[in-house]
Amino acid sequence: MGVASLFRVIEGASVTAPKGFRAGGLHCGLKKTSRNDLGAIVCEVPAVAAAVYTTNVFQAAPLKVTRESLAKGNTLRAVIVNSGNANACTGKQGEEDAYTMRAEAAHVLGVQVDEVAVASTGVIGELLKMDKVTAGIAALPASLAAGGSGSEQFSQAILTTDLVKKEVCVSLMIDDQEVKIAGSAKGSGMIHPNMATMLGFVTTDAKIHPDALQSLLRETTDVTFNMITVDGDTSTNDMLLVMASGLAENRELGPQHPDWESFAAALRHVCEILAQAIARDGEGATRLVEVEVTGAISDLSARTIAKTIVGSSLVKSAVFGADANWGRIIAAVGRAGEPVNPETVDIKLGTIPVLMGSRPIAFDEEEALAYLKGDTVVISVDLQNGKGSATAWGCDLTYDYVRINAAYRT
């Protein structure tokens, strides 16, 4: 039995499903619309926590504050999040505002200051309207709930140009105890491998060693969130945060635990579903694009090639136009900078072979057109050059992407 078969998906559940967590959200006035723009996840006990962050040199103030909180002991009680304003490239005032958000949240939630993480997303280069933020934080405790309403309000509060919320929850047995892992994420544009314009929040009631959680999170991110792209841009605010309450009462998880691989597979599934949802909801997107690369000299090489293909503007445009132009795919393979035998590459669009042994083969253009008009387009590339494999996700490039980003600030 594979490890993936040892967990089950819980439909309709999200970050409040694991034991010990509440969440909520509200509209404090940062967005011009009435959509929620402030949210929080709170744990009733100190939760073991781990995080990964954007590689962008211009990291936003909230990331500095969150790093500082985690450095105090690898545990958190809460995360406070706002949308509508990134609080990035805002200098000393921006840092002070992020620290104020942390302090105000700690005060109203009755926890220590260094037990609070901070995250922001939205427009870069504008100062937060702190009168609205602090008033919103004061009202947040009343919105917190352990049920679905809490996670619903939180998931709505973190969205920017997203069209839909992204949520997932799974359950598995560890040491005869039910353990749940759930996640909520946002992301639609400015998405590129090495994190994306995304915020991701994962909760679990598993008991796990902090070093093991941090290591597993990095490994998982490399094959999930770091394998998506929408437009080739990496944001200033990206963060993926995991909080583990430990209330499932399993023995502490680590690489030596007999159920470690099952837990790792379940966490990967949660992150993969959220990553796919971000790619599918790319700004203006009409199709999810999945690129599967096999036969590379290594998994790392396969990742690079897969990301190059899925990030190609020409490939993305061809998918939007339902054009079976495999030349754009093979060109992306060739410029990825990885070892490839130019005589052995096979390419399929779904189940339709279009290239075999690096040579074109006849295929039904109408069948390919019909396939490329579907909601999901799978591009399979077999390099026949080794045992490495990887999968990347992205979306098509549409007219609406330009329209949305041409007027993002206005």
Automatic annotation (TrEMBL):
It catalyses: N(2)-acetyl-L-ornithine + L-glutamate = N-acetyl-L-glutamate + L-ornithine; L-glutamate + acetyl-CoA = N-acetyl-L-glutamate + CoA + H(+). It is found in: Cytoplasm. Transmembrane segments: none annotated. It comes from the Bacteria. The record marks T121, G122 as: Involved in the stabilization of negative charge on the oxyanion by the formation of the oxyanion hole. Substrate binds at T160, K186, T197, E283, N405, T410. PANTHER family: ARGININE BIOSYNTHESIS BIFUNCTIONAL PROTEIN ARGJ, ARGININE BIOSYNTHESIS BIFUNCTIONAL PROTEIN ARGJ, MITOCHONDRIAL. This is Arginine biosynthesis bifunctional protein ArgJ.
